[in-house]
Amino acid sequence: MHKRILLLVCGLIMGHSLMAQADIQQRYPFLKLEANVLQFPAGQEKMSAFFNRLEELSFSGKGQLNVLHIGGSHVQAGTLSSAMRQGMQQLHPGIAGSRGFFFPMRLAGTNQPANFSVQANGQWEGFRCSVTSHSAQWGVAGIAAETRDADARIDITAFSEDTMRCSFRRIRIFHVLGSGHFRPVVRDSSDFPDSSFTHPHGYTEFIFSAPRDRFSFELTGDSTADRFVFQGIQYLEDLPGLSYHAIGVNGASTKSYLRCADLPDQLSALSADLVILGIGINDAYGPEDSFDADAFGLRYDSLLNFFEAVNPEVVFVFMSNNDSYYKRRYPNRNALKVQQVMKRLAKERGGAYWDLTSLMGGLGSVDAWKEAGLAKKDRIHFTRAGYQLQAQLFIHAFQQEWIQQLRSKSSRRP
């Protein structure tokens, strides 16, 4: 029975996916869809183990998987990450897990996706790890928002793609700990959690016996407390499912994330099984002779070590830079150097590589995307339709690898 179900699911998914790809090719003939595959320079052992867990979750309803996508403005804006979340959680019916990690970006004075709302009173100041003049104690989000208003109240709501409120049984508020800092507390009796605790890795967790879809907290502290540094929010459910965490900072590079002192500790809270790495567009922005590919690779290695320290079996998927222009005039050839670094890292770490540069059509192809209404005039960023197309293409490539493994396994079963 299990074999027949696998074959049926494979056939349905494959047929629908191929039809969608054919439609995309007809609509956008400049795409090189033959490049829309995951490459595995060192083999698929790690990814196969992830797919085994995905199969167990999908067909047996057991287990939890965490996917983390980290990058720059492409991720912060929310359109790409929202479409990626939806695609990953629809790989099979019923596998959608918790809403995951997000940051209250408006409190930091920068843009945030529309699928969550964080309202607060008081005065707040924002700091981004990508701004060299900013200095803060950053965590995994790479953004921090600080207030000195002891009477601040923060209200949090997150939404799924159909605007329904996301629920949680546990919620984590990431913040700077220690002397001189306020900590979050619930004072409204109607919102009291069943329990709460502060973890030394940089968050306070509130636990509820029944699902909740909104959360409010205030601040408390001893006589030395004079500030609260907000570092992020995480929704959690204890049910099986796939959760997708999006981390993006406008202008962020590998160097930016290495400034985040609390990032290594806080990564343990997200417990990533698969990490999609889209960092590189800002590292490579500049004249060709200004980009040091070796230094770029070393910084990436340091970041990868943080993830592997939490989970040695984590699977890395490197997403190459999109084609872009430097100062809107010069095709950015540094994207080709980023390709080579990412392929090498994928080989060394047993990961996968997705070649967005080639898929787009190669060097200079962003012009065709712009003419088709998929890229913006700056020749770096994309329109809503462009980001949604990128997500659709990535999910197709990822899905095809999973289907291939399912079909291979089903053919071996009696």
Question: Characteristics of this structure?
Answer:
Jelly Rolls, globular, 35% helix, 2 domains, 414 residues, alpha+beta, seven-stranded antiparallel β-sheet
Detailed description of the structure:
- This protein has 414 residues and is α+β, with helices and mostly antiparallel strands.
- The chain has 2 domains: 40-97 and 241-393, Rossmann fold (3-Layer(aba) Sandwich); 98-238, Jelly Rolls (Sandwich).
- Helices cover 35% and strands 24% of the residues.
- The chain is built from 11 helices and 19 strands.
- It has helices at 2-27, 45-60, 73-76, 79-89, 254-257, 263-270, 293-310, 334-349, 356-360, 366-371, 384-412; strands at residues 38-39, 64-71, 100-102, 116-120, 124-128, 143-147, 153-158, 168-175, 183-185, 195-199, 203-212, 215-220, 228-236, 241-248, 274-277, 315-319, 325-326, 330-331, 352-354.
- Strands 3, 5, 6, 8, 10, 11 and 13 form a 7-stranded antiparallel β-sheet that branches. Strands 1-19-16-15-2-14 form a 6-stranded mixed β-sheet, sandwiched between helices. The chain has a 4-stranded antiparallel β-sheet with strand order 4-7-12-9, with no helix packed on it.
- Helix 4 runs parallel beside helix 11 (384-412), helix 6 crosses helix 7 (293-310) and helix 7 packs parallel to helix 8.
- The longest helix has 29 residues, at 384-412.
- The chain is globular.
- The model has no long low-confidence stretch (mean pLDDT 92).
Précis, in short:
This protein has 414 residues and is of the alpha+beta class. The protein has helices spanning 2-27, 45-60, 73-76, 79-89, 254-257, 263-270, 293-310, 334-349, 356-360, 366-371, 384-412; strands at residues 38-39, 64-71, 100-102, 116-120, 124-128, 143-147, 153-158, 168-175, 183-185, 195-199, 203-212, 215-220, 228-236, 241-248, 274-277, 315-319, 325-326, 330-331, 352-354.
